[in-house]
TrEMBL record:
InterPro entries: HTH_LacI, LacI/GalR-like_sensor, Lambda_DNA-bd_dom_sf, Peripla_BP_I
Transcription regulation listed as a keyword: yes
Protein keywords: DNA-binding, Transcription, Transcription regulation
Originating organism: Candidatus Enterocloster faecavium
UniProt protein name: LacI family transcriptional regulator
Domain HTH lacI-type: 5-59
SMART domains recorded: HTH_LACI
A GO MF term: transcription cis-regulatory region binding
Amino acid sequence: MKKRVTRNDVAKLAGVSPAVVSYVMNNSNYVSEEKRTAVLNAVKELNYTPNIFAKSLRTNRSNQIALVGDTLQAELYGELSNRLFEKGYFSTLFFSHKDDSFINKLIEGRYEAIFMASNAFEAHQLNRIVENGIPLILYQSRNYEGLDPRIVIRVPDFYDGVRRVLNFLILKGHKRIAYIPPLLYQATGAEGNDFRAKAYSDTLRENNIEVNPDFFSIHTQSESSILEDVFFMMTSYKADQRPTALVASDDHIAAQVLRYVKKLNLSVPDDVAIVGWGNIASSQITTPELTTVDTEIPYFAYEVSEALIQMAQGIKVESKLYKGRLIIRGST
């Protein structure tokens, strides 16, 4: 069995002390450029990888950050994970469960910070995380009563983005506009506490357009239940009464809906326009390409990863809303 390369091996080859190797690996400024170069060359030659677990025992830090979601936002989580890794942090992705035992596992997991992009929990459950000394960034898409002020909010401006979408569609002559909430949305109808749902109902009313409860999908436990709602919307009404536009809460759902309505022999956008959210890569490979709200995922992930690391190091971070940009493509 091949012997594991140690810090002492690197130090010997580089002609420095083991402490200098540690300084270089931790990107310290207290090392001359000559010694830094010697250490890095030795690291490369020996293919040295620091023992993260041993380091965590020495420093009492895990360098672990938890990413929690209830939908698959692969591009966002991928960007976050890569950014964190570049800074020496490992991330673990969880799909959330609503019960307290999941929160307990997070608290017990020695995570230095948590990014929560889930609608599954109530304020008192989220508060427990920061009460136990773990920094938390919340990707907040709905209103919470009694949220601990120590919780940092980093999120796209859902309300503003959906208003832009609705006003764009209304200017194009659409009045029968349906809204499809995110997966696992806690269904309370268009008057619910989801920021996108509120923007939907507010904008329609401001334009003297009636909010039809049938045009608001509330069965979002799975993609199949969402498509069942779409089937009901598009087949239960005559052609001059059914929705002429469908606004989905993310591009993945929008792409699924687009494919589904085409199977119903409906033309996009002639019979029904479709709008997504996020501007993920797949929004440009549908036929037609999706109109969507660009939330600049790479930039957002960079900012959130930096904030998570700062919070893990005890640095105060402020909440922030990120404005989206409407990108008009062939689906409208």
